[in-house]
Amino acid sequence: MQNEYNIHNKGSDEEVFASLLLLYYEDLYKYALKYIKDAEESKDSVNQFFIYVWEKRTFFQLASHTKSYVITSFKNFLIRSGSSLRQNEKKQQLYSLTLEDKELPYEAYILANQKETELKQHLQKAISNLSPRQKQLVQLKFYEHLSYEEIAEKTSLELRTVYNKLHEAIKQLRQSDIIQHLKKNIFIF
Amino acid sequence: MTNNRFTVEELMLDDSFIGYCLGKDATDIEKWEAIINVHADYQNVFAEAKQLIILLNSGLTQNEIDKERQWIMNEILKRKTFIIGDEHENQKVKKVWYLKASSWAYISAAACILFIVFMVVPKVDNNTAAPQQKEVFSSISSFGEHKKVLLPDSTTVMLNSNSSISWNSDYNSTNRLLSLRGTAFFKVAKNPHKPFIVQSGTLFTTALGTAFYVQQSAADNTVAVSLLEGKISVEASKNTDKSIVYPGQQIIYSKASANLQKQSFDTLFLHQLLTDEISFTQVRLKEVMAQLAKWYNVNIEVQNPALKDKLVTGVYKDISLEDLLKVLSFSMHFTYTKIGNTIIIQ
C-alpha cells in the first residue's frame, strides 16, 4: 500500500485526493466516534474535514508519518469546529470539548455503530463478558487493525501470548449467544 | 494454511483473511475467494469467521465509505466552479459551508450558491446553448501548465497550457457533452449508453470510451483530433457527414474551408505527454525548445544564436513551463520574456 502522498504542491489533483480519502476515511471516522459518539455526526465531521483539507491543500506538507499527521490535523480540526459550535447546546454535548486522549470502552463504539439493535445487544454482552485484557486485544486487532507486532509492543506482551490470548478470546466469543444469532443469517452473503 | 483444516479462530487471526473480509486489499480478496471456492465443505466456517470480523470491526462498510467519498468528490468538483467567480463571493460561500446541514443557514447557503452560479454562467458560457437553469462547471489551466481534471463519470482530462473545459450539471445524465477551448487530452471512461461529445468551436468529436487529444491552434485556425485508443467519430458541425477515426490516425479540421482531412501521426509524443515526464540527454537547446513548444502548445523563439547549440541534460516530471524555464535560465544564463502565446529567449 502506498503511504506517501504529496498533496502540498500545485501538481496535486483530484485523483491523489481520492486515494487519500480511501486510505484514511475509516480511521478518521473511528477517531471522530470517540468524541462525537454518533455515527451520522461523525461522518459529517470527517466529510467537512476532507473538504477543508482540499481547500487548504497548498498549506499541507505531508511528511513520512502521513497517518499520524492526518490524524493530528483532524484532531485540531475537531477542536476548532467544536468550539465554534459551542453556542448550539446539542452540539456542546456531542463534542467533549476537552479532546484529551481518553479511551471509550469498546462497547461504546459498538453502540454507536451497529444499526441492528438485537445484534448490538448480543454483541455488547459477548464483549463485556471478556476479561479486560482480552477485550483490549480484540479491540486492538479487529477495531484498530494493528499488526501482532504493534499489539505486542503496545501491551508489552510476548508476540506468542498476544496470539494465544486472542485465540482464547475468539473461542469465548463463539460460545456466546451472538453465534446463535449469526447462524440464523449465515447464508445471507 | 498448508494443512487445509480451517478453524474460525485461525482464520480470524490471519491478517490476510481480515483484509479479505473488510474488502481492503485486492490481493487478499482474490486469494481468499479462490480458497473459499475450492473448500466448499468449509463454507460455514468461512461465513462465521467473516461475520465476526465484520461485527468486531464495527466500522463503516465499503459501500458506506464509497457513498461518502462520492459526496465529497462532488462537493469538490462543484467548488472548482466558484474559483472562476469573484474572490469575494468565493470567501462567503466557504464560510457558510461549515454550518450544519440541518440548520437554516444551510438553506440560505444553498440560495447563495444558486445565486452565484447564475452570476458565473454568462461569463463562462456565452457561446454554448441554453444557459437557463443549468449549473456550469469549468476548469481552466494557466499558461505553461498541464492540468489534470477528473470528471464525475471518472473520465480524466489533461488540459494543456491556456485551455479550459466546461460542462453542465446534466453532464452524464443522457450524454456527456463538454465544451473545450484550447488543447486537451481525454481519457474517456467506458459507457456505451452515454456518448462522450467534445465540442471545440463548431467541431464535434464523439467517443464511447477511448483516449484522444484535441488541439486547437488559433494561429492557423485549425483543430486537430488525434486518437490513441478506441474509435471516435468527428463531424464538422451538427449536420454534416461523420468521419470515423481509428487509433494512430489524426483528423485536421480547417475552419476556413470547413474541410476534414485524415492522416497518421506520431503516437509516441502523446504517450510521453501522458506520463508528463520530459527528458533530455545532451540535446541542443534549440531542439529542447522545439519540444517544449509542442509539449506545452506554445511558441518559443530562441533569439540569441550563441544559445542555440548549448547542450541540455535533465529529467522533468509534472513541471510547469514557467518552473522549467526558471531552472534552465538559471543554469544556462539566459533571460526569457513572454509576449502573448510566444516566449522569447535571449
Automatic annotation (TrEMBL), chain A:
InterPro entries from the UniProt entry: RNA_pol_sigma-70-like, RNA_pol_sigma-70_dom, RNA_pol_sigma70_r4_t2, RNA_pol_sigma_r2, RNA_pol_sigma_r3/r4-like, WH-like_DNA-bd_sf
Organism classification: Bacteria, Pseudomonadati, Bacteroidota, Chitinophagia, Chitinophagales
Matches recorded under NCBIfam families: sigma70-ECF
Keywords: Sigma factor, Transcription, Transcription regulation
Source species: Ilyomonas limi
Gene Ontology biological-process entries: DNA-templated transcription initiation
Iron keyword on record: no
Coiled coil segments of this chain: none
Membership in a protein family: Belongs to the sigma-70 factor family. ECF subfamily.
Domain of life: Bacteria
GO molecular-function terms, A-Z: DNA binding; sigma factor activity
Location of the RNA polymerase sigma factor 70 region 4 type domain: 123-173
CDD domains: Sigma70_r4
Protein name: Sigma-70 family RNA polymerase sigma factor
From TrEMBL, chain B:
Domain of life: Bacteria
Keywords from the UniProt entry: Membrane, Transmembrane, Transmembrane helix
Domain Protein FecR C-terminal as annotated: residue spans: 278-345
Keyword Membrane: yes
FecR protein domain span: 144-232
Molecular function terms from GO: sigma factor antagonist activity
Alphabetical list of InterPro entries matching this protein: FecR (IPR006860), FecR_C (IPR032508), Ferrdict_sens_TM (IPR012373)
Sequence intervals crossing the membrane: 104-121
Protein name: DUF4974 domain-containing protein
